[in-house]
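G., the chain you wanted modeled:
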Amino acid sequence: MRSRYTRLLICMLIVLPSAAFASPPPVGAKTADFRRAVQERFEAGINGDSSFSSYFVADATYTVSSDTGNVAKAARYSKKDPSEKEWVTISDFNVIVREDVAIATYDSTDHERFPTSSIDTPYRHTDTFQLREGRWLIVAIQADVEPRGRVAIDPNAWEAYVGVYRAADGVTHTVLRDRNAFTDRETGDTHPYAMIPTSSSTFRVADDPADYMFIKDAKGIVMALLHVQSRLPTIYYRQR
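Predicted structure as tokens:
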């Protein structure tokens, strides 16, 4: 059954430049190890260091999905103008590990400072790692701008999300299409709930402020549904 919650935030972490990258998270990695890898990914983007891509990611074709629905292949790194300053703060960082797949969820704010203006952009992230040869490597990144309200979607694109998703405890979410709208029914619900899209890959339902996000694999195929409640993410793997 659905429940209400108030999301709590942990302390903010400032990403600082470093001279070299540490190794990717190893087998048995803790939350701090994944957080470090994420921090270094931001660091690489800010500093225009493309070496991160060849060292930390699974291959050169990992996907980067944005809230606009665009999917880019691999990372694009470019040097910043010397007059610009940028840093990233991270909060609410959580990781769940299921066999050879790990899902990291967190909030970030990208701080940009220009000679005559400043921009602070909040995002909600979901990064997918896969265990390969004893190292956790990034295979997919999803980022959505916050705060999120209802957004317009392409119903035909959302058709890819229709299916049944199951958690380790047997609880399921069934996503169905109803003309140009979609519904979600969780085990124990007395009726389907209308899904409120908040980006190209996330939604909420009425009376339940929890975040739901569809997770894609390295090929862009929908593999799971992530439910974040009280800072504790639950992953539901797609059954059909």
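The two ends are 22 Å apart (CA to CA).

Shout if anything looks off.
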